[in-house]
Design goal:
Layout (H helix, E strand, L loop, with lengths): L1 E3 L9 E4 L4 H15 L10 E30 L6 E2 L3 H13 L5 H12 L13 E4 L5 E8 L8 E3 L8 E3 L8 E3 L8 E4 L2 E7 L8 E3 L8 E3 L8 E3 L8 E17 L7 H10 L8 E5 L2 H12 L7 H7 L4 E19 L2 E8 L4 E3 L4 H5 L1 H11 L5 H8 L3 H12 L3 H11 L6 H42 L3 H6 L8 H32 L17 H21 L8 H9 L1
Helix pairs in contact: 8-9, 8-12, 10-11, 10-12, 11-12, 12-14, 12-15, 14-15
């Protein structure tokens, strides 16, 4: 955005015919041709059928409304820094005067406008509606004092712990003035020295069982620590000042709301503006009107307006102070019609960058045969490999296959395909490409995954047989003195074997998958580990069954000790 002193601000959505600018339409046309490239159609055969472009020049404005926020509080003491009033009514009158005094201050209007313009959004766009900006320099405080009612303006109140007496009950003797004898513990008698079977009168308490409390000198009371024996403490409400301040705080914020002639602009222009909101500054030339003459003329024009919904006039009518920020907006847009393979398509161009929006899904039509071949591969019609190769002749379909292989999930593959083809490809086509690619890739790896699972299952029998039916396990657990850890050793063998079996299944499937993918991108792609699907569950089941079978077999061999934890389970069941 740049400032301007141009005083020819358009009163409304004034449309000016755009002279055909080759760089404007050509930039968009080249984008379309680049998307066509690689999809078995010559981009140079895409023909521009027609172009219609215009420049919109219209005014927009943001109203910065000064909004009050009033708060009140009671503070201890006398706050001399705030302006004095007689009562709450007086405070409200002063705050009303302070707000009214803001009206017509040229420096304030300029200051508020600069504050808004210096924001990141410049006060332009739909998202600035009902956004508040603090104006700390306009903060006002008013106060009146009254004597504290809690202490009756004395500053002190009777001490609560001692009830104003200056002393409290002794905590040691609890007001009795005496404590149990520490020698006889209140029994009055103690064993005689040298003859434990005979008791004599306690020599310390003289047979009374208690002694005088030394803490309170047998009075039953001790000085109150809270009030230092004064019987009074500072008032908690006024903090000992005998006064309270009734404080009234007036804060002012600038609330922004954006207005532009939405109903008078072409529907697609208005939609694109709201879709981009504050980033509209990247697509339109927006000049901020700052000279006082133009602003004054705008206000006078608004005052003469017969539009009852005029927000500026409505605000003034209701006594609300508001300042306008005026924008002179120049925004190009256009429509192009182009033909691909004998079929016409339309695209809307928006802003200085000729951004393509509302693009017809022309790629859907161009890659239709590629999607059909991909579907054949997914549904096992003909050779899966040959159908994938034929589908991969279409750049967009090939990207879908590659993203499906390389992405950890179908969802992420769809996101990548959409990012690579942001225009001209519908969401339905994206879903169809990725879903069929996923099924086709599973068809390719189904046989090696199945064979790998069978080999893994046989390997589990061999591995667990060697572990449980030979002295191998006994030698291993003999190194573990804690019997409770033997089961962890067995489970670790099961887990490690299952993991290695899974890696083996994936390795075989990956070799086949990479061979097929190299037909799409020779020597340029390293495939990610293929998804195993339900084979992973069959693999885990096979490992578990082989593990249990060999454990059970160890029970029936005289020269082998079966696991103690397994014997315990057998006894339970």
């Amino acid at each position: 955005m740049t400032d301007t002193t141009d005083n020819t601000l358009p009163p409304d959505a004034q449309i000016i015919e755009l002279k055909i600018d080759p760089t404007y339409k050509d930039r968009a046309f080249e984008t379309i041709k680049s998307l066509v490239k690689g999809n078995k159609y010559n981009p140079d055969e895409v023909t521009l059928e027609s172009f219609e472009g215009k420049i919109l020049r219209f005014s927009a404005y943001t109203l910065s409304t000064l909004v009050e926020k009033r708060t009140k509080a009671i503070k201890p003491g006398r706050l001399e820094s705030a302006k004095k009033v007689n009562n709450e009514e007086g405070a409200n009158i002063e705050m009303e005067k302070a707000y009214r005094a803001l009206n017509g201050q040229a420096d304030l209007e300029r200051s508020v406008r600069e504050t808004i313009i210096n924001r990141k959004d410049k006060g332009f766009g739909i998202k600035i509606n009902n956004v508040f900006t603090s104006l700390p320099t306009l903060k006002k405080e008013f106060v009146f004092f009254d004597g504290c009612k809690t202490c009756k303006a004395q500053g002190n109140v009777p001490c609560m712990p001692c009830n104003g007496n200056g002393r409290v009950t002794c905590t040691r003797c609890r007001g009795t003035g005496r404590t149990p004898c520490t020698h006889c513990h209140g029994a009055q008698m103690v064993p005689m020295a040298g003859n434990a079977n005979k008791k004599v009168q306690c020599p310390v308490c003289h047979g009374r069982g208690f002694t005088g409390c030394v803490m309170c000198n047998q009075t039953g009371y001790i000085p109150c620590k809270t009030c230092a024996s004064k019987g009074i403490t500072p008032c908690p409400t006024c903090h000992g000042t005998a006064w309270n301040s009734h404080l009234f705080i007036q804060e002012v914020e600038a609330k922004t709301n954006f207005y532009y002639p939405k109903d008078k602009l072409p529907e697609k222009v208005a939609f694109s503006m709201e879709e981009r909101d504050s980033s509209i500054t990247e697509h339109a030339i927006i000049r901020i009107i700052t000279d006082n003459t133009s602003i004054t003329s705008w206000k006078e024009a608004q005052a003469k307006s017969t539009d009852h919904s005029n927000p500026f006039n409505e605000a003034l009518k209701n006594g609300i102070i508001c300042f306008p920020i005026l924008y002179d907006v120049t925004l190009p847009y256009g429509h192009i019609e182009y033909a691909i393979n004998g079929k016409n398509y339309y695209t809307f161009l928006f802003g200085q960058k000729a951004v393509l929006t509302h693009v017809s899904p022309f790629l859907d039509d161009l890659v239709e045969n590629g999607i059909r071949k991909l579907k054949d591969a997914a549904q096992l019609r003909g050779s899966v490999q040959e159908n994938l190769k034929a589908a991969g002749e279409y750049r967009t379909v090939k990207e879908g296959i590659i993203f499906t292989v390389m992405s950890p999930s179908i969802k992420k593959a769809k996101i990548k395909l959409k990012s690579a083809n942001p225009l001209g490809l519908s969401n339905n086509a994206i879903n169809e490409i990725v879903n069929n690619a996923d099924r086709a890739l599973k068809n390719i790896t189904k046989k090696p995954r199945t064979i790998g699972a069978i080999i893994a299952g046989a390997s589990y029998i061999v591995v667990f047989g060697a572990y449980f039916l030979t002295p191998l396990r006994q030698q291993l657990i003999s190194q573990i003195p804690n019997d409770a850890l033997h089961i962890l050793a067995d489970i670790s063998v099961l887990g490690a074997s299952t993991y290695i079996g899974t890696i083996g299944i994936q390795g075989g499937a990956q070799a086949v998958l990479k061979k097929v993918m190299n037909t799409l991108l020779p020597n340029e792609i390293k495939t990610a580990p293929p998804k195993l699907g339900k084979i992973i569950y069959w693999n885990i089941a096979a490992a578990s069954i082989a593990f249990i079978a060999m454990t059970e077999a160890s029970r029936h061999m005289s020269n082998i000790s079966s696991p103690a934890w397994y014997e315990a389970l057998i006894n339970i069941f």
